[in-house]
Protein 1
Amino acid sequence: MESSKEREFSFDIRRTVILGAYMRDWQMPECRIILSKPDTAVHVEVYYFPAVDETRVARFATVGLSAAHRPNGQAVGTEWMMALTSDLGGEPVDRIFTYLCDLIAHHIEGAGDSRIPRVMEESPLAPANWTTTALLLDELRGESEELEEIQVGSERVEILWALPVTAQEAALILSEGVEAFDSYIEEIEHSIIDPRR
């Protein structure tokens, strides 16, 4: 069993490597929130990387989710990245932090593993201004290849795309697969990262 000092040191190394990779691609984060459950040794930081200008993408990304353990003892082994339009779908940063923390806590407690694609069905906890009230976890898209998997010591940490989707899109993914969703997205006029589509 790791002592608290060893856990802290291990997390510091994890943060340095993962946050450094994020910053190489997305520049400086503006703020973060910490989700901590000391009784289960869960410590996850969620960082907000604002859009550089109106045409750029805003991102929220986790550090430490990969080291969290599920009730079955299995490590989550992945981090999440949520890309949104620069206006954040009309919601404040704090509201999105709260929503992500709810999703993360549910994922740690309720998902038996980190296999993808995974759909989290419609949630009343989704931000009020968003029409995308469900969530798709899938392989990272639209980012540099270096971010798909980050080496932390001997561990390979996969970065997953946490994409808000509508209830109808979630149903499409569950019934016909991610490929059908991709085809659908190519046909609509809205950006895939617009949570009000």
Protein 2
Amino acid sequence: MMTIKQSILGILLVLSSGFHTGIVAQEGRVSEEAVNLQKIFIDASREKLLGNYENAIALLKELLKKDPKNAAVAFELARAYEATEEDEKAVKAVKDAIEWDTQNTWYLKFLADLYQKLNRNDEAAKAYERITELEPNDEFNYFRWAYFLVRADEINDALKVYNLLEKRMGVNEEVIRRKHSLYLGTGDNKKAARELERLIEAYPKDMEYRHLLAGFYQQVGEMSKADEVYREILRLDPENAKAQLALAGEPGPSGGELQFLESLKPVFRQEGVSIDLKIGQLMPFIQRVADTGDQQLAAAALELSTILEEVHPTEAKGYSASGDLLYYSGKKQEALAKYKKTLELDDTVFLVWEQAMHIYREEMQYQDLLEFSEKAMDYFPNQATAYFLHGVAASKLDDEQEALSALQRALLMAGNNGFLQMQIQSQLGLVYNRLEQYEQSRQSFEAALALNPKSPDVLSQYAYALAERGERLDKAREMAALANDILPKQPEYLFTYGWVLYRMKDYKKAREWMDKALQNGGGQDPEMLEHYGDVLYQLNETEPAIGYWKQARQLGNRSELLEKKITDKKLYE
């Protein structure tokens, strides 16, 4: 087996083969002095390979004294200086090497690299100018020459270099794009456009180059010229979907959006048109529906997403778009079905999982949320939101230990996401409260409020926890009232305020607030129904109270205390 010493010796022999000395004996035989010089060079190279750069530098300097103007030695000295970050000395040494061997492009390229490191771009450009003279057929040299000229802010000279390159290789897309960018950067839109036109002239059948020109005109606000290019594309390629979509126009006022969406249908029905191109047209309208809840716009956009499902049945994106539109239209169960179909086709996008989990939570389908979030945790083990929602579901199903475990893991993963941290801390406050770990509950709620003192969710949940314990009820009422002021007509906040009043034994007002909660969407929450029954019982309406307790049980409330209330027809607290 070859030893490390033998390996290094082999490398050194290769290096020394490139070392030439001018000291040679008569009749072509190597003199003793030349042998000694070569030995010094090998020693220096060995020291450099071993990382002993100071020793290598000393040996190379000694060698140059004995054999002046040896370009190879000067180059190795420059490399040693560069390794010790003595860049100015490296520059001087390699410039000596270039002076003594004017045709060596490796020395020039090393010098250019040093100049780049020192941000001396104009000098790096001059080095590549010389390299290009020596290697005129290497296209890369022209690109590097122009690159350094651009960095030196010599734009006109860089353009001249690209012109030289074009004379050698003809019209080239890469060169055209670079010249186009330079003209664009200098504000010369006319010349920038002309470069793209030259590309079209060279490749008249390639429609993408025409799209580049049209896109450029759009970018600089010359819409009529852009439309003219798109019309030319359609003259040459009548089925070109990108041009068709571009000429469909922009949605205008008073029904213009609906008309625009209608105009997209023919293109959306074309199987050969990329679904990504179609989704790109649809996305602004999905966002508009999300922002405004415009049902008419949602219905029109949904017609297009349905076409996507039909034309691209194996693509997840069409179903996902339909899911978003249905969700923002308030049709959550229909949206959920679309998201499930999306995941059947592509289960790699966490946002779709997250949206489905939020629907389960909003629809109070906690068993489904528990199972679905567990799958999400398996697929995305580093997504804190999946663990958070799993904890929410477990808590709602009275499995507080499972909830605590999931929430603690979620908190570790939340990182710098302050909003998610706040949600997790508030939920931990509820869980600790139910586990009767009241100090931990207080700390969690206070941590949540520190992140956002005016979060209605945190205020309401903190108030609810205090009401559950019957402690600090004045503070609980204050927080519950503030939550309702910040975000009115939310069933959870309305109910919490009613529950605080109940714990303060103000049963009539408690009923008023709980009535509001049920009227605003809380009628499917088993916990609200149970406590509404409690209020009715306190107001001596026993039969209606039992009816609400039974409704709570039917909707999934399985607490032993609720069963005892129903069986004994009596309130227990």
Protein 3
Amino acid sequence: MALKFWKKFEKSDFFQSAKLKLRQSYGREPKFNVEKTCDITVFGDWGLPLNALNPNDIVYSFGVCDDIDFELALIKLKNVHVFAFDPTPYSVDWMAQQSLPKELQFYPLAAAAQDGEFYLYPLVNKKGKKSTIMYSFSSHQEARNDGVLVKALSLKSTMEKLNHNTIDVLKMDIEGAEFAFIKSVIESDIRPRLIMVEFHHRFKDFDKQDTIDTVALLRQAGYQIVYISPAGREMCFFYQ
């Protein structure tokens, strides 16, 4: 009973926020502040100004794994069109078993700064056990026997493939690939109204400076922070 309570407490906003502040005090986490006050609607770890969305808006969601609650909620509440992406074997199999609404389309593609292929590697927990569900991107690409080779497209190429001239929301939980991907988006002329991202500077090969630099790029491009999750990893940016 005590263990169950503790695990639940660890996931609470209070605990996550306190843990973040402690890590920030030791210099292990970057510090950011909300720059624009909006009426935020929160779905799990994600928050966004729901009133900024319009019916028939186009939402790209990269790295959905086996959780599309957020995407389904947006469809139900705002009647948007969602295009979900995830190239990992588990997600592809899981999505194939779902009864999806016509407003949600799924593609087994990865997000990248440029078109091509790269390896994703299974996450390893503290006990050394490899995940069969979660995979991460590594800047050190190796043809290991546990790597999964996936097809990747840039945002521009993805939009061309789907015949979209613009998109309204770009959401990503892409396990470390977000740093190069966001840089490529900013270097293009594509400006989604909202960019939502989970940062993975805690992963091997990355550090907090990667997140600091990426946030700086977004701000220089005209984006403002409108939401930061209690854990500090998920953020939402509004284009002005």
